[in-house]
Amino acid sequence: MYPERVFSGMRPTGSLHLGHYHGVLKNWTVLQSKYPCFFCVVDWHALTTHYETPGVIEKNVWEVFIDWLAAGIDPNQATLFIQSKVPEHSELALLIGMSTPLSWLERVPTYKEQMEKLKERDLSTYGFLGYPVLMAADILLYRAIHVPVGEDQVPHLEMTRQIARRFNRLYSSDSIVEEKSYQVAKKLGKKHARLYFALRHSYQEQGDGEALAQAHSILLESNSLSIRDREFLFSYLEVARKRILVEPKALLTSASRMPGLDGQKMSKSYGNTIGLREAKSSIVQKIRTMQTDPARVQLKDPGDPEKCKVWQLHQVYCNESTREWVKVGCKTAGIGCLDCKQPVIDGILREQQPMLERAQKYMDDPSLLRDIVDDGCEKARKSAKEVMQDVRDAMGLKYS
Ligand code: ATP
Ligand code: MG
């Protein structure tokens, strides 16, 4: 079987923030010592929204790598690389795109949502609609099983699984057995044979147990099959195939939707972020001016943590006893909002200190970073080439 690999990517559209750290990067730092990990800066994905301003991408690529290393990603364990340096990503995207129904893409929740949200950009493009196909190719190209991402990516992962299942059904089967199945199924009569294959399809692509049961009853009720034919068709429903592509699963952290300064999901496009390497004075200022429970106009007014945006950050940065202190202090007006914010500020700055130190090394000597990434791109290309060879062979694009 294939090795248990991890793949994840980030778009170089700016420096990273605490949402990226708690939502995803923390998971990466744990996974890197357990599995072979492929971490990719997906520059082509950045172009889906920034095709008019590609000039910002290169600078951001290096910033993102530094952020990763700052967060504790170890280049001796994980493979760090740039998507466009491994052209196989685009080849696989093109090939799986051939069999991906348009309706799957149109119903992805982020598709309409992002179009609404990013009104200042014209996103009615082929590239933007196809984003999930490219993302599926990124993951499938490494036969990754685990994909540590934020909650917003879960629908993309589900589509990646569907794309893999469809690909395997179309191209991974053994053609002799397949031909035999058509010959034997014919004996069921045209209508039932068609139904048999449709039910098998539903079972194999969607894991539909009812479809399997219905196919069983068609076989049991048929008078025209010999015992051997029936047995063959029974087992063909379940035929274990050599999977060319592997179905991945999303891995989420407990902060898979890390809130920002305004309580919405932390995101650059909402302007509610705290950067991973942001200046201390700016972090302090941002937290100190965060909105709290509007009922607390004055110090003597009691409040309710559930109505306070800072409370969500306490969930990430503070331990149980501090949270208890906040709850009691807020409800009894025993502490002020600035007192309450201090442990969050302290928590963020404490977490940030080692990151700043790690980042400095690469800022002082950028060639260190170039070497890591050159090395990573080469490793990724080697892996990608192997899988693409299998994909081309399976699709009959061999020409040798
Ligand atoms: P932004 O929304 O700030 O522009 P992004 O979503 O464009 O960032 P991506 O490269 O698309 O950045 O996302 C990188 C990864 O970080 C994805 O797995 C995404 O789910 C995750 N992520 C981004 N923001 C958050 C957040 N606030 N909480 C949890 N995970 C997040
Ligand atoms: Mg995103």
UniProtKB/TrEMBL annotation:
The keyword Metal-binding does not apply. It is an enzyme of class 6 (ligase). Its EC number is 6.1.1.2. Gene3D superfamilies: HUPs (3.40.50.620), Tyrosyl-Transfer RNA Synthetase (1.10.240.10). One of its GO terms (molecular function) is ligase activity. Keywords: Aminoacyl-tRNA synthetase, ATP-binding, Ligase, Nucleotide-binding, Protein biosynthesis. CDD domains: TrpRS_core. PROSITE patterns: AA_TRNA_LIGASE_I (PS00178). It holds the Pfam family tRNA-synt_1b. Belongs to the class-I aminoacyl-tRNA synthetase family. This is Tryptophan--tRNA ligase. It comes from Candidatus Pandoraea novymonadis. The lineage of its organism: Bacteria, Pseudomonadati, Pseudomonadota, Betaproteobacteria, Burkholderiales.
